[in-house]
Amino acid sequence: MTYCVAMCVDEGLVFLSDTRTNAGVDHVSAARKMSVFEQPGDRVLVLMGAGNLSLTQSVVQLLSEPGEGGRATLWNAPNMAEAARVVGDAVREVHQRDAGPLEEFDLTFNCSFILGGQIKGLAPRLFMIYSAGNFIESTRVSPYFQIGESKYGKPIVDRVITPATPLDEAAKCALISMDSTLRSNLSVGLPLDLLVYERDALKVTRFAVLDQENAYYRMIHRTWGERLRQIFGEIPNPAWTDPSDVPLRGRHTEVSLPRALAPDEIAAQQQSPAQTLAEAQRNQRQQ
């Protein structure tokens, strides 16, 4: 599995991915999930993939090949939306080739991607591409995407990231989100690829590979845990009130179950409303 997170803020873009791959406890290795398509002065596009590694690598390989017959590629797409469509088309091409054989081995076609970047003269944009090749774009309400094991790091990003978040703070938030995921999920692992893109730079200026020897990441890991425990200790304990509303039960209280109906009672319940009314009137006259 993997965990990738990307953020689109006013100052630029942040991309972070782990490198853990596994196919069971005996087959754990590392592979990069981030690919960078850079043409300095014209465009910087960053693609991160999660899911079946053979599928994500097949898609990246297709995207790395030169276009034929005027076909759009990541190198000549006129805008980021068209670049997302190029990635979606590559996903569908791999699906057409591999989905059937995978199904014969009871394997599902599973891959997803985050694509972000900037093309000269246009604003930075961020997209998520699904296994079907369709995609969505980030918004100012939700300026980030996650793929892979996202649940452990999501609450942190939800509470921190807004479009106005400074770029360095967004990078710090991404690292804390990743650290929480590493803490709780063995299928995500170091080293990490971190790329921070400054708006209108049109080239990569900030990139780092972080492992357990990296001083900043060690500081993030240690400080985040210490501060969480500190804040937890500062929050007041629950204040208990009068327990008069406790739903107490006696020691030998029995649960009363519905009584089984006799056949004649079942038949009576199945009578029509008119029959039931007539019977009630007869009973009233007899009384």
Q: What are the defining features of this structure?
A:
single chain, 287 residues, alpha+beta, Glutamine Phosphoribosylpyrophosphate, subunit 1, domain 1, five-stranded antiparallel beta sheet, 7 helices, 36% helix
Describe the fold and architecture.
With 287 residues, the protein is α+β, with helices and mostly antiparallel strands. It has one domain: 4-Layer Sandwich (Glutamine Phosphoribosylpyrophosphate, subunit 1, domain 1). The strands form three sheets. It has a five-stranded antiparallel sheet, with helices on one face. A five-stranded antiparallel sheet has the order 5-6-7-8-9, with helices on one face. Helix 3 (154-160) packs antiparallel against helix 4 (167-184) and helix 4 (167-184) packs across helix 5. It has helices spanning 53-64, 80-104, 154-160, 167-184, 215-234, 263-269, 273-286; strands spanning 3-9, 12-17, 20-22, 28-30, 34-39, 43-51, 111-119, 125-129, 135-137, 144-148, 192-198, 206-210. Strand 8 (125-129) and strand 9 form a beta hairpin. 36% of the residues lie in helices and 24% in strands.
